[in-house]
Amino acid sequence: MDSKNVFASNGGQGINKKKATIVLLHGSGLSHIVWSLTEQYLSNQNYNVLAIDLPGHGNSEGDCLKSIEEISDWLEKVFKELNVFELTIIGHSQGCLEALEYSSRYSKRVKNLIFVAGSYRMPVNQDLIDLASSGNKDAVKLMTKWGYVNSKKFIGGDPVEKIINSPRDIREILAIDFVACNNYKNGLEALKKINCPTLFIFGELDKMVNLEKGQKFADSVVNSKTHVIKNCGHMIMFENAFEMREKISEFLKK
């Protein structure tokens, strides 16, 4: 698209126009890989599933987009190209901001919204932005420290550190995403426009989006559903993908 390749993992199923489509949006500095335990599960339940890599992330070409608004318009180009409607959009962390802004701009395409570990405003500490902008690996260590209840339980190491594994990744991807999150101010206005079934999933012990902040987000959407996963932090799709995806499936069947 725009002469740049866009990558979306689809559970090996392609797109069937007779099926409903689920779009998975990753968080800052990450890629479609974060959804590996979720994508196949939902695909097996008769949905088209697209775990999209944003420009410059994972296997998608191009430079990283510098604002949530730009990302939303880019997503619309992707969906238009694919000719998909009635989307269920699932965002994690930064992906929640993108889902929120996209739904406020292009509501006709959106059937359901699912926000995982997100809020309508996600400021990032300036020290963390500065570390990332200089390509310092401490930025990823801090992200890991704040992202999990217990990151030591992963056999073979933290998945986040495997995705963001070079100073270039930190400087040219993670830092730009952090700034985009920090600069996004339209969340409260976008929230008011939500008029589709909406599910919020939070980690009980999330240090990045604490439960009180998350609950305020959820309470702003009339008739929405909320599920809190016990003993879980911010990286829900790694820490407890099984409970998360079951709750998503239940919500979509209602």
Q: Catalogue the unreliable spans.
A: none
Mean pLDDT: 94
Structural category: alpha/beta
The arrangement of helices and strands along the chain is EEHEHEHEHHHHHEHEHH
Shape: globular
> Reading side by side through the largest sheet, how are the strands ordered?
1-3-2-4-5-6-7
Task: Please name the defining characteristics of this protein.
254 residues; alpha/beta; Rossmann fold; seven-stranded mixed β-sheet; 11 helices; globular
Would you mind describing this structure in some detail?
The protein has one domain (8-123, 185-253): Rossmann fold. It is 42% helix and 14% strand. It has 11 helices and 7 strands. The protein has helices at 36-43, 68-82, 94-105, 126-133, 138-147, 159-163, 167-183, 187-192, 211-219, 236-239, 241-253, and strands spanning 8-9, 21-25, 48-52, 87-92, 110-116, 198-203, 225-229. Strands 1-3-2-4-5-6-7 form a 7-stranded mixed beta sheet, sandwiched between helices. Strand 6 (198-203), helix 9 (211-219) and strand 7 (225-229) form a beta-alpha-beta unit. The radius of gyration is 17 Å and the shape is globular. The termini are far apart. The model has no long low-confidence stretch (mean pLDDT 94).
